[in-house]
């Protein structure tokens, strides 16, 4: 055997066998949780316009435009700073950094960030509003959305 070789398999130090190479390609990364345990989320990008009703069983982030209704049930909705929404929103938690025209209902909370605006009514047990945020409509913080 030459110096620097692995006596058990005849390979030089640092040399990868075909089996090792295939194993790296086929086996999932052990650091990733199994697919059924990953937190699912959907995303509507800046270049997209969606018209109609969106119903989802996962969290949703919108950076584009939506016209219609959005219903997420027990999941979170995030409206990005460049987003333009003309829709009624229903979700567990709603974070707004963009412009929303429509009614907003959350079962847990609505967070209106500094660049966010809502033209419509907000119903949620908790409303967090940053300086600079705008609401043109009514606010009901008495109870859960119906």
What does this structure look like?
With 146 residues, the chain is mainly beta. It has a domain at 40-140. It is built from one helix and 13 strands. The protein has one helix at residues 18-26; strands at residues 41-44, 49-55, 59-62, 65-71, 76-79, 84-96, 99-101, 104-112, 117-119, 122-123, 127-129, 134-136, 139-140. Strands 1, 2, 3, 4, 5, 6, 7, 8, 9, 10, 11, 12 and 13 form a 13-stranded parallel sheet that branches. Mean pLDDT is 83; it is low at 25-30.
Topology readout:
Blueprint: H1 18-26, E1 41-44, E2 49-55, E3 59-62, E4 65-71, E5 76-79, E6 84-96, E7 99-101, E8 104-112, E9 117-119, E10 122-123, E11 127-129, E12 134-136, E13 139-140
**How many DSSP-defined strands?**
13
Spatial separation of the terminal alpha carbons? 77 Å
Low-confidence stretches: 25-30
**Level of helix content?**
under 10%
Radius of gyration: 24 Å
Determine the structural class based on helices, strands and strand pairing: mainly beta
Mean pLDDT: 83
**Estimated share of beta-strand residues:** 35-45%
How are helices and strands ordered from N to C?
HEEEEEEEEEEEEE
How many H/I helices? 1
Q: Globular, elongated, flat, extended or rod-shaped: what is the shape?
A: globular
Main β sheet profile = 13 strands, parallel
């Amino acid at each position: 055997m030459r110096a620097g070789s692995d006596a058990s398999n005849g390979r030089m130090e640092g040399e990868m066998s075909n089996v090792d190479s295939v194993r790296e390609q086929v086996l999932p990364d052990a650091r990733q949780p199994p697919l059924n345990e990953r937190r699912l989320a959907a995303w509507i990008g800046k270049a997209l316009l969606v018209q109609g009703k969106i119903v989802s069983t996962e969290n949703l982030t919108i950076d584009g435009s939506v016209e219609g209704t959005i219903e997420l049930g027990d999941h979170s909705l995030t409206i990005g700073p460049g987003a333009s929404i003309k829709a009624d929103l229903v979700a567990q938690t709603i974070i707004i950094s963009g412009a929303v025209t429509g009614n907003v209902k959350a079962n847990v909370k609505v967070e209106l960030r500094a660049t966010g605006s809502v033209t419509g009514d907000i119903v949620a047990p908790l409303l967090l509003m940053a300086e600079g945020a705008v609401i043109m409509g009514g606010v009901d913080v008495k109870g859960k959305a119906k």
